[in-house]
């Protein structure tokens, strides 16, 4: 039946397709977009096979960890774009925003009672894996989860890669066939659908769809929800339209200088796409295709050498290859870990060599130590660290290079490595719009040695963990404007 690669489809329960169901239900939880989405494409395939209409259900809870105005606003803006996209396509879209804690309980199971099959998104971190396990036991209809996260299907290998080099080498040997398996850009338009049906009235009566005013995500609308109002909106908007604009701006103004400029805060050469990819407002396949078109590239240009080198395999410009290494190698490396290890966010998941050297230096004197609250308020002695923390709190993002220094210093200034991890996870996931993502945990745990190797000379506190200093960072990077902007 399927044009969606089977490697991307997981059946989560042993229930059968309900032939007499009224509709196919796509429960959208991670790939929050109407274009280039394998999950939506799979739901469309089921709808056509069964000759059933499609209902797209996207919900937003209020009792998830770190729920705040910042995250809610970003998601709501995406839902507003979705509503228009699906209305234009003639598909029933049901956006539900929980007004109070647990108000949405039983909504999915009730909605699924009349469905023929339920399709959802496969996402390997935060609360989603646990939620899918619990839901799979409750539904009395076939439930499938579809991976539309990256170019390489994350469950196509059982190996958990220990370094970026080993994963990059694996990709160079294994990715080529998947470059011919992109999601359909507009699966609804391409395949058509049976006539739509409305959401059952008894469901809407108990669980009303989000109003147009709520989807505007105004301060007033957010203030009525039981979420953290101390974390205000990010410095950028969410949704498909915003994601498209950010990609356009990156292609026009920053891609060609990405390779040399992305590490310098004053150069502003990063893509800015991470929050949109995290929430599924744009697909990594879409981003990759724009890069390929920019380079006038085809798969014939792939190198036959599979040494794991960071440059040369794609046959593209240096800046494009540098960006693709972040988009594919480093990003999907995190998905690889989270898909196969449930302890991805635990200290015990660190490499043995890293734990050994950290524990050998556990009693080393720390000249500075700070509490979570002092870190959060950027009350350290370090000007650069404080600036990075202020950017995170104010804007909802953290410059990629400074994120590494930010983490290294938290490790250095915490009483234990476990305390350091708690601080990094709390601050990143609370304030970063792209937090709570597999790639977030890659960056946080890289600070303590994941995906890295032992370094010398051995140093106090760090042992053989890679060492970074604010002094050397300031000498290497252009950041005077950055420091001035986030000085207070």
Describe the model.
The protein has 488 residues and is an alpha/beta fold. It folds into three domains: 1-148, HUPs (Rossmann fold, 3-Layer(aba) Sandwich); 240-340, Serine Threonine Protein Phosphatase 5, Tetratricopeptide repeat; 347-485, Orthogonal Bundle (DNA Cyclobutane Dipyrimidine Photolyase, subunit A, domain 3). It has 22 helices and six strands. It has helices at 38-50, 69-89, 107-113, 128-138, 164-174, 187-191, 201-206, 212-215, 219-223, 240-254, 258-261, 274-278, 284-294, 318-340, 352-360, 372-376, 383-395, 400-412, 417-431, 438-446, 470-476, 480-485; strands spanning 9-11, 23-28, 54-60, 92-97, 115-121, 143-146. It has a six-stranded mixed sheet with strand order 1-6-5-2-3-4, with helices on both faces. Helix 2 (69-89) links the parallel strand 3 and strand 4 (92-97). The longest helix is centred in the C-terminal third of the chain and has 23 residues, at 318-340. It starts with 8 loop residues before the first strand and ends with a helix.
């Amino acid at each position: 039946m399927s044009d969606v690669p089977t490697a991307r489809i997981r059946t989560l329960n042993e229930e059968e397709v309900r032939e007499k169901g009224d509709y196919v239900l796509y429960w959208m939880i991670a790939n929050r977009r109407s274009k280039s989405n394998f999950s939506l494409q799979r739901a469309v395939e089921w709808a056509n096979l069964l000759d059933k209409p499609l209902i797209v259900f996207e919900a937003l809870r209020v009792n998830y960890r770190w729920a705040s105005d910042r995250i809610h606003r970003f998601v709501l803006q995406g839902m507003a774009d979705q509503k228009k996209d699906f209305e234009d396509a003639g598909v029933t879209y049901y956006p539900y925003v929980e007004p109070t804690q647990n108000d949405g309980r039983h909504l999915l199971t009730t909605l699924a009672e009349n469905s023929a099959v339920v399709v959802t998104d496969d996402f390997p971190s935060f609360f989603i894996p646990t939620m899918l396990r619990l839901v799979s036991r409750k539904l009395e209809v076939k439930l499938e989860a579809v991976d539309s996260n990256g170019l390489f299907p994350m469950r196509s290998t059982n190996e958990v890669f220990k370094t970026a080099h080993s994963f990059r080498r694996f990709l160079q040997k294994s990715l080529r066939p998947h470059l011919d398996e992109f999601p359909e850009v507009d699966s609804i338009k391409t395949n058509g659908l049976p006539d739509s049906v409305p959401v059952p009235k008894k469901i809407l009566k108990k669980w009303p769809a989000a109003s147009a005013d709520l989807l505007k995500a105004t301060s007033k609308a957010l203030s009525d929800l039981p979420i953290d109002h101390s974390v205000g909106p990010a410095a950028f908007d969410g949704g498909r339209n915003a994601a498209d604009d950010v990609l356009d701006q990156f292609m026009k103004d920053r891609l060609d200088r990405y390779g040399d400029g992305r590490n310098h805060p004053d150069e502003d050469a990063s893509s800015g796409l991470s929050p949109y990819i995290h929430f599924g407002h744009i697909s990594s396949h879409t981003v990759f295709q724009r890069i390929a078109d920019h380079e006038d590239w085809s798969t014939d240009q792939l190198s036959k050498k599979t040494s794991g080198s960071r440059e040369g395999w794609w046959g593209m410009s240096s800046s494009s290859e540098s960006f693709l290494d972040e988009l594919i190698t480093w990003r999907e490396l995190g998905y690889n870990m989270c898909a196969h290890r449930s302890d991805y966010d635990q200290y015990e998941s660190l490499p043995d060599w890293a734990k050994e050297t950290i524990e050998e230096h556990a009693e080393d004197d720390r000249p500075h130590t700070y509490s979570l609250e002092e870190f959060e308020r950027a009350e350290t002695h370090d000007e650069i660290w404080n600036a990075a923390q202020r950017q995170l709190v104010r804007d909802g993002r953290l410059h990629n290079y400074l994120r590494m220094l930010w983490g290294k210093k938290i490790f250095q200034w915490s009483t234990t490595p476990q305390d350091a991890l708690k601080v990094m996870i709390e601050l990143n996931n609370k304030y970063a719009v792209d937090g709570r993502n597999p790639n977030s945990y890659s960056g946080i745990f890289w600070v303590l040695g994941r995906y890295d190797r032992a370094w010398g000379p051995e140093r106090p506190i760090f042992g053989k963990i890679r060492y970074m200093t604010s002094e050397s960072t300031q000498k290497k990077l252009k950041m005077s404007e950055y420091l001035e902007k986030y000085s207070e």
